[in-house]
Amino acid sequence: MFIASQIIFGASYGYVLVCVLIAAGFSFLLYWVRKESEFSNPVRWLLSVLRFFTVFLILLLLLEPSWYKTYSKLQKPTILVLQDNSQSILAQKDSAYIKGVYISELKKLIQNPALQEKMQFETHLFDKTVHLNKPLDSLNFSGTQTQLSDLAQEIYNLYQDQYLGAVILATDGIYTQGYNPTEIFTKLNVPFYNIILGDTIQKKDIRIKSVQHNNTVYLNNEVPVQIEYEAINYPNQKTELTIEHQGKIIYTQPVSFNAGIEQNSLMALIKAQEEGIQRYDIILKGLPEEATYKNNRWTIYLKVQKNKQKILLLSGSPSPDVMAMHRPLLNTGNTEVQLISRTQGQEFTENINAVSFADFDALILHNFPNQNSDMSIINAINQATEKVKLPIFYCIGTNTNLDLLNSFTNIGVRKVRSRTSFSECTFEITDEYLTHSTFTFDVNNFKKLFKNSPPLQCSDAEIIAKPNSKVFGKKAIQNLKLDVPLLVFQEDMNLRNVVLIGDNYWKIRMNNYVQDKNFAIFDTWIQNIIQWLVANKDKRKLTVTTNQRLYENTDAILFKGEMYDESYNGVENGEIKVNLVNSKKENQTYFLKPQGKGMYQLNIGSLPEGEYSFTAEGSDKNKKIGTDAGRFTVSKTQAEFQNIVANFNLLNQIALRTEGKTYMQKDINRLKNDLLNDNRIKLRQVKIEESRPFRIFWWYLLIILTLLTAEWTIRKYYGRT
Predict the structure, then answer these.
(1) In this predicted model, which residue has the larger pLDDT, 554 or 434?
(2) Is 640 a member of any domain?
(3) For 483, which DSSP code?
(4) Strand partners, 501
(5) Are residues 341 and 444 in the same domain?
(6) With the C-alpha atoms ordered 508, 514, 519, 520, is the resulting torsion angle positive or negative?
(7) What confidence score (pLDDT) does residue 701 get?
(8) Where are the alpha helices (DSSP H) in 372-466?
(9) Cα dist. 50→30, 38, 218, 711, 713 in Å?
(10) What is the 3-state secondary structure (H, E, C) of 446-472?
(11) What is the pTM (predicted TM-score) of this model?
(12) Same domain, 171 and 46
């Protein structure tokens, strides 16, 4: 429906009069001041008018005229179809029905003329990630993880300001990552029509529910492995649980089930007798008529090494951040942590003067020093630094005595100006940190964790990084990024230290658990920093590593390389070739991409389960620089088969909270009538404002060309050019 129309200019309307005067003056000078005898007055008037309008229309373009119109039209609401593409959808007896009849019926629903007249459909698939605008024809049910909370957040971000009518969520409701998505889904304020794919009835099945173990263990040590298992509808049945290593059974334990549904656990002790990455298969022997046998097996990988690292964590004052640093180190299994904390005054939990700092592989100083009396301890630390190149991790908090910081001989920052005030801030990583060897995370997940966590508390004192330090984290206040360091790495004369500024990092660790039900991102971050501190300086000219040693078959594998010339300057545009060999002795060659400053990188995506080895060769202008080699292991993700019973409660909760409905997979035909009869899903009239510049109109340019042609033709007719 048309409402209004007008012409607007990019300049004042007064300039239109100027264009009229210029065009009139130009025409007058050409045809009246220079009178041409062969033109009669009527012809002269006609030529004057043609020239006037030609010049006027050309000058008018300089004022950027636009045709502005306002009209209204009927807008269809968008119906989102969110289809689960994970493996668990087919882990049931009706898998053939889902792949055939169900998908066909859903296509018919989307293409139904009556629905198309009233609404429009947009289809997205999801598993571990969201696959936007993917048609149902691309369904393959191959996703090895299901992430409903990320789906909810991404859909909310995309559609919160759009005209939505409803959401059709087709899934079994089983999510293997993230958290309950109900709260985010309800923020869309539209009804959810949920299709339950799968059976909500508990079927006969036994399964390994979870396995807990340390990733890193020590040679010839007994390793505890906590195994949780479950039986459904197998009362008074017996079976056995075994653990295999290199094809041999190293552990056997009979298990029995008494009730209809029973959960139990056992602690198995296995001895790590070989160094390196070792695979162990945990197998729960199957029983007749199980719904699936895919969840009877669980594979774990242990990194077996010889020696433990000794870390001293010295705390100057009580703080929950101390445990946030302590826990990640204990969880590695290869670190022995001695914690000494100040209790009051000059007293510590242990006699600090009897501690030999030189006996440790690294030192963590948290809110230390915080008293002038700590100067004697600082001197002892400096002596150990000089004697054994002791690496130090400085955690500078609100209780740290900043005046004593400059007393350390091995620290990457210095205090410039003291201030007693504090402010809330967030942690922003720098782009340079992404290529550092300690950064082994998905960038988006790492940034999301720190962005969504409660703020840190940081001193307003002026602390700057020393010239030979690298700043990898900076302060941000209310999304304003400041050039103030929060994370600083320094390596000088083969001596390393790290500085982390701020309090309340424990809240980030807890938020990691809220989001992911684990502490993996935060703990790995701290572990990687410590590992970099204690690692010996590598003098090789070529090093190539992967960002992890253990992967799941859904993880992307990232190769990182460093290449240096004779003077240990980074080789900018050399070539690093990597030859990757799998357990079947099949080869694949890759070339790492230069990142600058001698750094190289390549993401090769995910790989199938198995053991992999690689050799790398670096060269610069056909001159060989060096070689390197390494190994890594890819394990099979088993999460999608750990629970094969559809989560009716979750989907029903979402439907109730949004005033929608829930359907079983064979009741999809009912959905058409419910969509048509839902009064909330209706066309709406929207006001459209449209502005189009005259320069894009072909007819405007045609008018100018016609005027010029007419003038030229008349002049030619009367013998003038």
Answers:
(1) 434
(2) no
(3) E
(4) 396
(5) yes
(6) negative
(7) 86
(8) 375-388, 443-452
(9) 12, 18, 96, 6, 11
(10) HHHHHHHCCCEEEECCEEEECCCEEEE
(11) 0.51
(12) no
